[in-house]
Amino acid sequence: MVNYLNYANVSNNLTLTKKLPMKKTQPVDIHALYLASVQDPMSDIERISNIYSEIFQKQAKSFREDFSGTFALSCCWVQSDIERSAIAIDIDHETVEYGKKNYLANMNESEQGRLQAIEGNCIVETEAVDVIATFNFSYCLLHKRSELLDYFKKCHTSLNDNGMMIMDNFGGSDSEIPEVQERDIEHADHLGPFIFEFERKSFNPIDRLAHYGIHFKFPDGREVMNAYTYHFRMWSLTELKDLLEEAGFSKSHVYWEKCDKDGFGNGEFYQTLEEENSVNWNAYIVGVK
Ligand SMILES: C[S@@+](CC[C@H](N)C(=O)[O-])C[C@H]1O[C@@H](n2cnc3c(N)ncnc32)[C@H](O)[C@@H]1O
């Protein structure tokens, strides 16, 4: 049972703005909205654990979460097994502090003792772990090939012999055009209903840089536009496989998400070598040390 979440503790000072007129203000917790709409740490942990066991025929114990944000994934990792430990690294002070105050503080002594939350640059060598996870496309914040290669090399050094790094990736024929994807979030714990929007504002096919914004909108008309913005380089799976090999990884595998009958991803992934392109797809890429 994961018990670190504490949405009641609204800890940042952002305010909701009403479009017209802009009178009413009320504190809003964008990290809680982000967790409810973007992240699913319990399912991620289950998938990471299954992929690791499939590759190494044993259970992963030690974990490093890079570009970790509020390190929800690391919290779930240490709560998933008493023998599991985690290192979470994020460069942003406010974000790391939020995780410490809202998640870490609600965990028991044993769990807290097995989680190190570090504020700093994750392009770094650390003590060796079984798994390094870089989620929500955060490696796409590294725009230069030389930077990403350096990062992968440092990850390779920071893995045990039976170690892997795992990243998510997305693509498809619709993934390079400006668009807004919208989802109703109706049943988030401790949060009223809201709309999550993921906007691709631009994509430059020459340098493959895409500009994204995340917006949250509420039934009464209030909205938080650009609660998060990102400039991602849209690395292809082929480029990532080449870079992992160059960094020293012995193998890399792609895990592709299955679709339901309406063509939407269903959260189940399988290892594959060849796929047909579709309008939108999701995958994991795993580098094996
Ligand atoms: C797209 S968010 C991902 C957050 C989280 N991993 C998730 O799954 O939702 C990217 C995060 O990377 C952090 N970041 C950016 N550059 C970084 C760096 N060089 N080292 C560590 N963290 C970094 C930002 O502060 C931000 O929290």
Please describe what this structure looks like.
It is a single chain. The protein has 289 residues and is an alpha/beta fold. It folds into two domains: 17-37 and 176-232, no CATH class; 41-172 and 235-288, Vaccinia Virus protein VP39 (Rossmann fold, 3-Layer(aba) Sandwich), CATH 3.40.50. The chain is 25% helix and 35% strand. The chain has helices at residues 30-37, 41-56, 72-80, 93-102, 109-113, 145-157, 237-246, and strands spanning 17-18, 62-66, 85-90, 115-119, 129-134, 159-171, 179-185, 194-204, 209-217, 222-233, 251-259, 265-272, 281-288. The strands form two sheets. It has an eight-stranded mixed sheet with strand order 4-3-2-5-6-13-11-12. The chain has a five-stranded antiparallel sheet with strand order 1-10-9-8-7, covered by helices on one side. Strand 11 and strand 12 form a beta hairpin. Helix 2 crosses helix 3 (72-80). The structure holds S-adenosylmethionine. S-adenosylmethionine binds at residues 38-39, 67-69, 89-92, 95, 121-123, 135-136, 138, 141, 230.
